[in-house]
Amino acid sequence: MAQYNFKKIVVVPSFKDFTDIVLSKTQRKTPTVVHRHYQISRIRHFYMRKVKYTQQNFHDKLSQIIADFPKLEDIHPFYADLINVLYDRDHYKLALGQINTARHLIDKRWRNCH
Q1: High-pLDDT (> 70) share of the chain, %
Q2: Is 0.90 surpassed by the pTM of this model?
Q3: Closest among 113, 7, 99 to 60, alpha carbons compared
């Protein structure tokens, strides 16, 4: 049974805030201007780079959320029971599973797009 530090769990932002965080980071870290005289392949590369960067940011943020929350099998039985009483064990596992599914769907969409 491993010791777990519950203080390292960060607050999960709402959907709107989460999207705003990722998109603003993409806007800051990637080029933002496409000129009219660019060839179509260069424009395509420009937007594919933005899409890839956004996908990677979503993947990283969702992976961080999944990694921060403890696995119920790895924590002390007292804390596992406490989570079961406060949040319902099934709901907790289902929520983390949905985040994992969202991460896989975003990765799959990128592979289909690329």
Answers
A1: 97
A2: no
A3: 99
Tokens coding 59: 């993947």
DSSP for the chain, written as a single string: -----GGGPPPPPPHHHHHHHHHHHHHHHS-----TTS-HHHHHHHHHHHHHHHHHHHHHHHHHHHHHSPPTTTS-HHHHHHHHHHH-HHHHHHHHHHHHHHHHHHHHHHHHH-
Amino acid at 42: R
At 39-79, the pLDDT tens digits run: 999 999 999 999 999 999 999 999 999 999 988 888 889 98
Gap between the Cα atoms of 2 and 75, Å rounded = 6
